[in-house]
Amino acid sequence: MSAAVQTPLQGLPRSPMPVPYTPTEPTASVPTSTFDASKHLAYSPPARILTMEDLQLENTPISPIAASDPFPLLSYEAVLEHRRELFSPEVIDNCLHRHLVGSAMLRGMAQKYTPFIQSFWNSPEVLAIVSNIAGVDLVPAMNYEICHTNIQLGSDGLEGVRATPVVPPIATTEPAATSESSQGPANEKTSYDNPIVNWHKDSHPFVIVVMLSDARSMEGGETVLMGGDGKTLSVRAPQMGSAVVLQGRHISHVALPATNMPERITIVTSFRPRDPTLTDETTNANVLRESHLTELFYQWTTYRLDMVAERSNIMAKALREKYAENVKKSDAKARPGMCRIETVNVDEMKSWVEEQIKYLQQTMYEMRSLEQE
Fold it and tell me: Region entry Disordered: which residue ranges (predicted)?
């Protein structure tokens, strides 16, 4: 266990999320609210933060943190706002993708269709929480990767998604009816054979996974991590409104189904380092077949070009500062224009340029045709 880098979190409520509600609460007609940290956050720090070393894995270039225990994050009001926006007809009509037999997903909705969600996951308060746990200053990877939604289908299958209520159904201890996947009792073989998300590593450095369903009596539904020694570690599923932070780009993991839930809905927001000089290993590996490529490629390309531009500005600023120092050393009046002291180390500059070329080549590779897969 290792403490993460501390980030100021002044003014945030730290009590667990309240759970007083009834399934008939009339909230569907309530208009979308504006994000308010005092109202929509119920943050309390995770009891435990695992390091890569704890999982017998090598540290990565950006952070030694592997995963957190579940911790309260969204208030009940924030859960309702997320559900209200995510399951609107507009989002389902434009952002629904089929995944495995027993699951579906919503992707790419944040910027256009869900203003509350967009503001929530770009807020300085939420970014401070996620960055503090991850041990590195993070921002959303792209708007397209805000609030990716995984839905375990019920007995009504894909059509049942349209009937998802704003108010989460109350947890039950009875086995829930499933879709055509016909999942059986919660045992290791069945769970691994019928995952919500198969074994994978994420496309983005860090993710935060949040539960939007009432999971108080849930059986199964955990995330299983693969350690470097081949052993697995199960991270219990978060309760409603609670979250788990994971450095998913470097940890193979699988999401197991719940067997007694009237629904299981989780959201995933992906993050990358804010600092453009840090290693950026973001890819589109897992999302090409589950995205509208016109929008994804626009956001991908502009973010990558912005990174190159920021890196170039940082390098140019450093060279100007070094040149100014050299001018002072070589001219009594500090006159620029004919400095005889070397400012640009050609070998270092060559290495930097080659890094940017590789970064741009990777940018193009990540937009390869699906037919090449």
Answer: 1-32
Structural domain count, the chain: 2
The model's pTM is: 0.84
Beta bridge partners of 65: 51
- In sequence order, what DSSP letters do the residues of 197-241 get, joined into one string? EEEE--SSSEEEEEE-S--TT--B--EEEEPTTS-EEEEPPPPBT
pLDDT tens for 151-201 read 988 778 888 899 999 999 887 666 544 433 322 333 444 455 566 667 888
Residue 129's domain comprises 37-274
- Can you read off the two tokens belonging to residue 173? 């201890």
Q: Which residue has the tokens 């119920």?
A: 42
CB-based contacts of 224: which residues, under 8 Å, 6+ apart? 232, 233, 234, 235, 253, 254, 256
The pLDDT tens digits of the residues spanning 55-88 come to: 999 999 999 999 999 999 999 999 999 999 999 9
For residue 86, which of 70, 102, 106 has the smallest C-alpha distance? 106
* Same domain assignment for residues 224 and 365: no
Domain identity same for 205 and 318: no
Domain endpoint, select from 274, 290, 313 = 274
The answer to whether the beta carbons of residues 284 and 366 sit under 8 Å apart is: yes
Task: Classify burial at 256, counting beta carbons within 10 Å of its beta carbon; exposed 0-12, middle 13-18, buried 19 or more.
Answer: buried
Q: Which residue type is seen at 160? A: G
Q: Which of 256, 260, 222, 228 is nearest to 56 (CA)?
A: 228
Residue with tokens 């730290």: 14
- Cα angle 202, 204, 205 (rounded to 5 degrees) comes to 100
**Single-letter code of the amino acid located at 186:** A
Residue pair 249/284 in contact by the 8 Å Cβ criterion = no
Token pair 């890196």 in the structure block, residue: 311
**Looking at the structure, do residues 251 and 327 belong to the same domain, yes or no?**
no
Q: In this structure, which amino acid lies at residue 182?
A: S
Single out the residue of 222, 98, 240, 234 nearest to residue 157, CA to CA: 98
The C-alpha atoms of residue 326 and residue 38 are separated, in whole angstroms, by 52
Is the domain of 258 the same as that of 329? no
